[in-house]
Design goal:
single chain, 230 residues, alpha/beta, 7-stranded mixed β-sheet, 8 helices
Length: 230
């Protein structure tokens, strides 16, 4: 079996994080929760649920993911696959098995869990989220001949390919940066339709006007940066 690690950025997800960890398939070797300046019981609950818990005081989704990657890099045994998953229980962690299957079959190196409309619970994505997702993937299709239809956070990638991407974004542009670099480096990829439900608690991005606007600017900024980069 391949060595698999899961990285879960989490900011004040005390109620949801035990559910997320509990639903992750047993084939995963290590679950790494990165508390991104949480002020509730996220750390305690994640640790009690069996996860390795790290703390990242600099606020930002990318900062949390990079913290998790830095921890993995320090371990003697390196993973074959890294899975990224949110801590709000909007995704179905048990679907990790189908997310990683194309990689196990040696068909691709990178897989996105696509939140298709038919599998989304009503209200699980806001109108700004849906529009922003459509705009970003449309621009990527036009500018890079991409086949991506979603910027979904539930994703799996071969560890060596992840390192080759040299990820840099510290905040909301993390997911689109990864996809753009996959396209630029011609890394093989696919999408797998996944179920998606209403999250537990309030979103720190789509749940606020400031978060939604800032995320939108970051995502579009990465797209245009790469669109004009030779």
């Amino acid at each position: 079996m391949p060595h698999i690690k899961v990285i879960i950025p989490a900011y004040n997800e005390a109620d949801s994080i035990p559910l997320v960890i509990g639903d992750i398939p047993a084939l995963v070797n290590e679950i790494i929760v990165v508390s991104n300046n949480s002020t509730d019981a996220t750390i305690e609950n994640a640790r009690n649920a069996g996860a390795t818990v790290l703390s990242e005081s600099r606020k930002g989704y990318g900062y949390a993911c990079l913290k998790g990657m830095a921890y993995v890099a320090e371990q003697n045994e390196k993973p074959d696959i890294i899975v990224f998953l949110d801590g709000d229980y909007s995704d179905y962690p048990e679907e990790l098995t189908k997310i990683i299957q194309p990689i196990l079959d040696n068909k691709v190196d990178f897989v996105i869990g696509a939140r298709v409309k038919t599998l989304r619970e009503k209200g699980s994505m806001t109108i700004p989220q849906i529009f922003g997702n459509w705009l970003a993937t449309t621009l990527m299709r036009f500018m890079f001949k991409s086949k991506f239809t979603d910027l979904g956070p539930f994703r799996a990638i071969k560890y060596k390919q992840l390192l080759a991407l040299n990820m840099q974004d510290k905040t909301y542009g993390w997911t689109v940066e990864m996809q753009l670099k996959v396209l630029k480096q011609k890394i093989s990829y696919t999408e797998i339709p996944v179920n998606y439900r209403n999250r537990i608690g309030v979103s720190k991005v789509s749940g606020t006007v400031k978060g939604a606007v800032f995320a939108g600017f970051k995502i579009l900024g990465w797209i245009f940066k790469y669109g004009f980069k030779k």
